[in-house]
Amino acid sequence: MPLTNVIYCGVCDFPAEYCEFSGKFKRCKAWLQENHPELYTKWYGDVTEDVSKQLAESSIGDEREEKLEKALEKLERKQQAREERELAKKLSSKVVIRREARTKRKCMIAISGLEVFEIDMKKLSKTFASKFATGCSISKNAEKKEEVIVQGDLADEVEAYIHSLLEEKGMKEVKVEVIDAAKKKKKAETTTTPGSENKK
Amino acid sequence: MFRKFTREDIHTRSNVKSSIQRNLKAKLLAQYPKLEEVIDEIIPKKAQIELYKCEGKIQLYLVNGEVLFFQNFDELIPSLRFVHKFPEAFPTVQVDRGAIKFVLAGSNIMCPGLTSPGAKLPEAPGFEKDTIVVINAENKETAMAVGKLLMSTEEIKEINKGHGVEMIHHLGDPLWTFSAD
Ligand SMILES: [Zn+2]
């Protein structure tokens, strides 16, 4: 007895026949057409008008079917709006890498702003710990937001890795800001008053 | 059951010892006898079952990083990914098209959604109360949810009011989207 092989949608991850309920139907259909054209033709035909008629041959009757279609359309609009909002938020946010002095010779790197980009900080800290063979932890900063702390002077390496991670997630345009607080502090001792460097 | 489940709810992860692994498989078979013919394909003899102990006494069992079944009390409950591999093994009911949206939102299933023309219940004697059932939908081939009968299928037909199935796990819930890594 062979195992069943279900086709999961590459967009919404539902079994493809449930895409209409995912709120991402338009993109789901485009995916199906690309990846499983025979199923696309079978389910949605060439003319989209026929689709709703085909689907309307369900037991729940025209009126309820129409209501359902409307609800599903609304779901899709909502989903789209939400995704747009999320994307806008991501694009207007940035990751901040701060180099801080720990002792006179040693420093550490604090990375904040990751939560917006759905980057798993626990995983990232494990990756850094093994990649750079150093101590790495998660702690809360002054704004009570979590940040990843890497021990050692690794700002450049961390920056490169964060860039590659963002690119992997299709968010190449996201800004990564590097602040060298360790250096500034030294300068601060001689030239400016402390506090002014925090403004940046 | 998984409405609010997140990675943070996983307390410990461990490998299941081979003796216990055998017991687990035997238990699965006792509960779902039709799995007999495919069990070694789904959980190969050499596979390592992992156990994730989670908040709320939920235990997830994974093979190759995929949750195959889980446990809250005594019974083993298949994940949808497992059900999809071999749906014949599980007691199944079907809801009408109108109920799909609500099931996917995590609601319990009302009796009329199980007795209307687009729905399907087994013929008498049917399934007992508390049976773990797979939930299919009108005009769909794959299962969309797993639940527990709040009354026997005969009672559902007879009473036809109120909640018939308690929702446990559905397409799109955090268990469905969970990935081990
Ligand atoms: Zn889809």
UniProtKB/TrEMBL annotation, chain B:
This is Translation machinery-associated protein 20. Belongs to the TMA20 family. One of its GO terms (molecular function) is RNA binding. The keyword Transit peptide does not apply. Keywords: Cytoplasm. GO terms for cellular component: cytoplasm. It is found in: Cytoplasm. SMART domains: PUA (SM00359). It comes from Kluyveromyces lactis (strain ATCC 8585 / CBS 2359 / DSM 70799 / NBRC 1267 / NRRL Y-1140 / WM37). Involved in translation. GO terms for biological process: formation of translation preinitiation complex. Residues 91-172 form the PUA domain. SUPFAM superfamilies: PUA domain-like (SSF88697).
